[in-house]
Amino acid sequence: MRTLDTLEINQKAIISEFEETTIPLKLVEMGCFPGSEVLVIKKALLGCPIYLKINDTFLSIRKELAKEISIELIKQ
Fold first, then answer.
1. How many CB atoms within 10 Å of residue 39?
2. In the β-sheet with 37-43, what is the strand arrangement from edge to edge?
């Protein structure tokens, strides 16, 4: 299964699942939940942090956290 950290810049995906115990509640409150569309805007040089657009919210997360979020690619 593919995870959020594997997306390249400008790739879109749908969040399919994640362990509720590993994702901070603040991310869920900002729209990071299964069924949400995610777009990678930018990545730092070493891949951490990752700047994302989830639905209409922009946020930055660590690569370690992105590895915990399973996704399904949207064909472009």
1. 17
2. 57-61, 50-54, 37-43, 12-18, 69-73
> Which alpha helices (H) appear in the chain, and where do they start and end?
25-29, 63-66
Residue 57 to residue 52: CA distance in whole angstroms: 8
Segments in the chain below pLDDT 50: none
Q: Which SS3 state, helix, strand or coil, does residue 35 take?
A: coil
Closest C-alpha to 69, from 37, 41, 44: 37
pLDDT of residue 1: 82
Residue 15, exposed/middle/buried by CB under 10 A (0-12, 13-18, 19+)? buried
